[in-house]
Amino acid sequence: MKRETNQSLAHVGENIRALRRRRRMTQTELARRLGMRPGPVNCIEKGKNLPSARVLHRLSEILDAPIDAFFAAMPSRYFDCPASASAEASGGGPSAPAARPCAWPARTGEEQADIPEPLLATTASLADAFLALEDLCGAPKSALLPLTLPFERTESGLVGLAERVRRLLGVNDAVIFDVVELLETAGLRLVFAPLPDGWESVSFHDARHGNAFLFVSCADGMNAERQLFRFGYELGRLYAHAPGRTDSSGEPGLDRRGKPFDPDRLSRRFAALFLMPESAVRATVAQTGVAPDGWTLALLYRLKHRFGVSAESFLYRLDELGLVTSVLRKRFQRSLRAHYRAHGNAEPDATRRILSPNGRLGDLLHLAAGRLPGDGEVARVRRLLNSLRLPGLEAGE
Length: 397
What we know:
Elements: H1 2-22, H2 27-34, H3 38-45, H4 53-62, H5 67-71, E1 104-105, H6 109-113, H7 117-136, H8 155-168, H9 179-185, E2 189-193, E3 201-206, E4 211-217, H10 224-241, H11 263-275, H12 278-288, H13 297-307, H14 311-320, H15 326-342, H16 359-371, H17 376-387
Parallel strand pairs: 2-4
Antiparallel strand pairs: 1-3, 3-4
Helix pairs in contact: 2-3, 7-16, 7-17, 8-11, 10-11, 14-15
């Protein structure tokens, strides 16, 4: 009986701790708001003491969760999908009920309904592990980059959005060499993971608590260029579906080919504009002195490496900017597609981008293990990350 009681105490403490972390609250801050010393709060979270009825009531108010959530088999799942199509009423994710504040997928209501359960389970467990390591290391984070910028769903609106995001990141029109580091420095949590059901990427936004997570697949065939593009794509998804997003355009506008900017097309276009701004592409081409009819495949490969994109994406960008002739564009496109078919989407001329997958996550795990040797929670996080075989993390870390 005593063992069951101890397990119940630990379970309550774990739930309280998880809910606190999702709200970017430190244990010291929670103690202050409860009117308690940090020591007793630490004992509650570690399952050594059960909170009194008065403390449970205050925890419910502070953490904005029902008391039942503290005793549930698990706290309300952090990543969730709405059951109704009202998801888009607030711009892509419903206002979560006070009892169940969640992070919502940056997808439309119809798309959210198609997200498989294994994907939600995998990404939610990784998010909680990320938050746990930040908390253990004393490095709470929030998205420093605003994700609710208004924009019109038109070509000019997307150009303006990409330019504004780059300004907020401090790069303006410069070529971004390390997109992953740039976005992580801005407070976004980027995770390379084996996503189930063939998903290439997915992102979640907890606007209420300033948390944003971007997950990109590390499966075979996901080379560096494809992964970088998917991070740009998911950033576009976050802007398209962030709660509270507004625009003055009403119905989506049309792209350059006359097709409506549905969410997928919009996000792909944003990624291209974000990774390959017009001024940077024009300046790069001008530095070589190449004329629209003077391109070779070898030169195309060399210049596309600067932007970390695929040769085909760079070719499209050159074409729309009038920097390559139609004859050459068609010839190169045939060659590239034949290469992609023959080599499983691998980039020709290899890749010059060397990404450091899960660098921030690995740093946190290393720091937490050094600061808290033998800590049970650090060990549990390590086992989870090792079981998922995340790239960039040594099994012994």
